[in-house]
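2024-03-11 09:14:02 INFO worker-7 job=invfold-0412 stage=load source=structure_tokens
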């Protein structure tokens, strides 16, 4: 389980393409500290398993399902990525509950900079729109953000200077794909209400 508070910007250092998967080698000084085989690390919001670890680099396998559902398939050597280790039990929940299970991808449609923050408009797949509400939480490339406006096929977020400086949303431009994970609590509520016929 993650919180969507990115620890560092990492970098893809190697990509090995396999028949139905690929293997990434990534550099990240903070997230590799104490890393072991089998540990989880979120890469642009996707929970990946550490296969190997050497110094400040680690490798992770990505299966076809993950490549199809996320934007990891477009990453190349030199791509910058958001990295986060799982939250420890009893630690502060700085963002919101993030599983690292991407629901789909969106496209950055527009960026509107201002003096102290920037508004970013992102496309929203139709099947995810019902889970996104104004002032609710959403994960974009592994970053816990608050929704400013929620439309039928888009949403906007407001980025503070820290987010712009320390995450991929500071460098991605219009047209770039981002990974989206909606608030898991909304999905559980929908399922429970459906099982009860929509009644209380």
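2024-03-11 09:14:09 INFO worker-7 stage=emit residues=200
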């Amino acid at each position: 389980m993650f919180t969507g508070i990115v620890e560092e910007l990492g970098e893809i250092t190697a990509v090995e393409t396999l028949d139905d998967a690929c293997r990434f080698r990534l550099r990240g000084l903070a997230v590799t500290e104490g890393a072991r085989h089998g540990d989880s690390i979120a890469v642009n919001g996707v929970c990946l398993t550490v296969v190997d670890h050497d110094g400040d680099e680690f490798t992770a396998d990505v299966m076809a399902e993950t490549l199809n559902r996320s934007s990891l398939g477009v990453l190349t050597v030199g791509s910058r990525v958001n990295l986060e280790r799982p939250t420890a039990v009893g630690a502060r929940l700085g963002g919101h509950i993030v599983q690292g299970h991407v629901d789909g991808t969106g496209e950055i449609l527009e960026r509107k900079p201002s003096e102290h923050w920037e508004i970013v408009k992102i496309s929203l797949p139709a099947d995810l729109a019902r889970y996104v509400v104004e002032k609710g939480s959403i994960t974009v490339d592994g970053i816990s953000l608050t929704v400013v406006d929620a439309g039928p096929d888009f949403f906007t977020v407001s980025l503070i200077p820290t987010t712009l400086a320390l995450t991929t949303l500071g460098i991605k431009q219009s047209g770039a794909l981002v990974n989206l994970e909606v608030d898991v609590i909304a999905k559980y509520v929908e399922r429970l209400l459906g099982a009860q016929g929509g009644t209380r």
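2024-03-11 09:14:09 INFO worker-7 stage=report msg="The mean pLDDT is 92."
2024-03-11 09:14:10 INFO worker-7 job finished
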